[in-house]
Amino acid sequence: MKKSILLIIVLCLSVTVFSQKKEKTIVTINGKTTTVSEFKRVYEKNLDAIDDVEAKDVTKNLELFINYKLKVKQAYDIKLDTMVSYKREMATYRNQLSAPYLKDTTFLDQLVKDAYFRTINEVKAKHILIRMPRGAVPKDTLLAYNKILEIRNRILKEGDFEAVAVEVSEDKSAKGDLKSGRKGNKGNLGYFNAFRMVYPFETAAYNTKVGEISMPFKSQFGYHILKVDDIRASKGEIEAAHILILDTTSVGKTKIDEVYSKLEKKESFKTLAKEYSGDPGSKNKGGNLGVFGSGRMVKSFDDVVFGLTEENTYSKPFKTRFGWHIVKLLKKHSVKSFEEMKSKLTQKVKKSSRMQLSEKAVIKKLTADYTITEHEEAKKILNIKNLRAIPKDSLQNTILSINNKNITQEVFIKFIRNRRHLPVFVLFETFKENEILSYYKENLIYTEPEYAHTLKEYEDGLLLFELMQQKIWNKSSNDSIGLREYFTKNSKKYTSKKLNTIKGEVMNDYQNFLEKEWIADLRRKSKIKIEKRQLKKLIKHYQTK
Predict the structure, then answer these.
(1) Measured between alpha carbons, how far is 68 from 164 in angstroms, rounded to an integer?
(2) How far apart are the first and last CA of the chain?
(3) Is residue 168 included in any domain, yes or no?
(4) 237-282: per-residue pLDDT in tens?
(5) Which of 45, 84, 199, 343 is the most exposed place for a label (fewest CB within 10 A)?
(6) pTM to 2 decimals?
């Protein structure tokens, strides 16, 4: 029965919220009209999915539609739309449904194309970082920017990027660690491609010409400059396995040579990895490291593994800072075409931080379209040290206006109440962007007809489901007396005389009975007028199609 009502919900979707004064009316229910085009939209939406000729009957579909509208009206009459659970579910669905409208699809397409270029081409770069304190204020930002700019100018004069990186970079890897004996990388990051670095860093690297030094740019870590040393076609990805001896001394060398000797005698690489390897992540998988591209491993490892040209060949023992290795090339994966990678790249872009740029593009467009006013007098509360403690009664002035919508200081304070990781002036900008998007979402039903249709369908369908739960499903399950009375009155149609043996079948019939009585009662209490002339035209229209 539940499946049946859900089918009816799908077939009898609610009508558009946009009135069309010149449209012909097909039916009037309790004074509320449904136009021909509105009903056609409901009817045609699922027409192609129906094979049964009888189920396509226009008159029957109109009757189902009327029943649907009568039920939905009752749901609103008894205020099911005020339930907390309903409001919560609708808020979740509204956010999901509006999400695509908050993305700039043109911008997304370009991000995907950029990601592909940056996948099939690897860039080699070195960088210098000047960090900023958490919750940096404009003064901190300016100091960091000026400092990195001075460093850039110094390198342009002196010409030794690596020496300056060792001296001033606040990325600890540039200097190394004397205690552990780890050498510094002098700012060198090796080759990398898309999604390997934070997006601002990746973009700066690919937008800087080989041999040049970028202008300062900001990431979540602070301000950077970088120098691009090379750009080359990607080597693709490989699948490899290794055996690691966790000892960088001569003892470890003796051990790895012993393993290599066994390999040369045709012993299994997998077996030897499980027996000797000290890498807990790959040991039990026969040393398998999975699929990876260049730049994912330390440079000394990368050089050896990507230097293997034939599948199922292995290297001689070599040393990294982790110990002694033997690596085996299992499989090469060449770079795929854009069409082959488009779907995967699109998903990666959507999940990455760069997708925020698409939302920013929408906000920028909306900012240009809307009349947005920041009320400076009300904004003075941003200068109050303990502004979160200001009494509610003192926060009723308008701090921001978007078209005809006024937002009070109270709303802003509520927004920042548990956000203390950023300065107040930064939080205000985030608040403003959130309010712009909220205003846009609130008005989507007026600007995006398809969104309005779909949202209304879900609202009514969810209410009807709850109403059916109360009127039919719960009643048939809990009303044992009514069920038995129905069974007794209709016992001739059943093969068994014992209710318990065919309870499921009887309950389904009882639900149908309850629904028919309910619909009959709704129709008795309602005024329904079908425009027969328009109905005949519709029937003729679909017969000739």
Answers:
(1) 75
(2) 33
(3) yes
(4) 899 999 999 999 999 999 999 999 999 999 999 999 999 999 999 9
(5) 84
(6) 0.56
Q: Are 124 and 177 within one domain?
A: yes
- Let me know whether 475 and 505 are in one domain: yes
Is residue 378 in some structural domain?
A: yes
Spans of the chain, pLDDT less than 70: 1-22, 46, 48-51, 135, 178-181, 545
Residue in this structure with the two tokens 């109270």, named with its chain if needed: 410
What the block records as the tokens of 440 is 């846009």
* H/E element, 336: none
* Chain segment 24-33, per-residue pLDDT in tens: 999 999 999 9
Residue 68's Cα: distance from chain center in Å? Answer: 34
CA distance 525 to 106: 52
Assigned domain for 347 exists: no
Type of residue found at 117: F
Length of the chain as a residue count: 545
Q: What is the DSSP string of 50-73?
A: ---TGGG-HHHHHHHHHHHHHHHH
By C-alpha distance, which of 219, 196, 198 is closest to 354? 198
CA–CA distance, 119 with 348 (Å, rounded to integer):
12
- Distance, in Å, from the CA atom of 327 to the CA atom of 140, rounded to the nearest integer, reads 47
